[in-house]
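#random but structural
TW: two for the price of one
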Amino acid sequence: MTGHCLQTFLELREARDRMIAQPPTDYVFIKDDGTPRKLNNVSAAFRKLCKLAGIVDFHFHDLRHDCGTKLRKAGVPLAEIKDWMGHSDISMTLRYAHACGDSGLRDAAKRLEQVRER
């Protein structure tokens, strides 16, 4: 997500929080009463919008991967991406290492996985 997109998102979330007389929430997709929407409803709406836009083979979860990749391309350290993405293990975050050509890190992660499997 670009800085502009992130800023717009944060502004929209603040406006949403003001519109519903509810305390601020960590949820992005909420109902009018402030309760979180079910993931199935959000995913279905996303699929419908992709279809209307003529976008194929793109899933809601792909946005998460795109965010991690763009954070890495922006030079954000992998440890910070790990925290941002909520990964419990850095090996999950290493999938974003490719964005900066961190092949040495990927090799190290593969070696760590091999040791862990023994």
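TW: number two ↓
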Amino acid sequence: MFGAGMVLTRGCISRLTVLSGTGNLRAALVVLVFAVTAHATLKGVLAPLRTTLGAATVNLGEAASLGALPGGAWLVSALIVAGALALAAIAGGALIARAVLPGAAGSGAPTTRPLPQPAE
């Protein structure tokens, strides 16, 4: 719902606030509608709906904890760290290849000799 609102208004509320400060009337109208809707949600006609939806909970029991997963929190933490290290190794390998092999693809260095310039 948030993303759809951003698409319809052509920007987030921060951007629209800046645009309204520069004199954009469309952005100023959106900021005004946003302020009225926010106030209605906090203290107005939408407040009962907000509190009703906020009171709804789902009891997940122990499933909401890393310790309840198979292998416990240590296994999950180790998998996350291993993934981060693998990603760093892959990214670091690409950086090393660019530094050691000047003609490596993506390094910005030319891979062929420059064409000869015509004589003047």
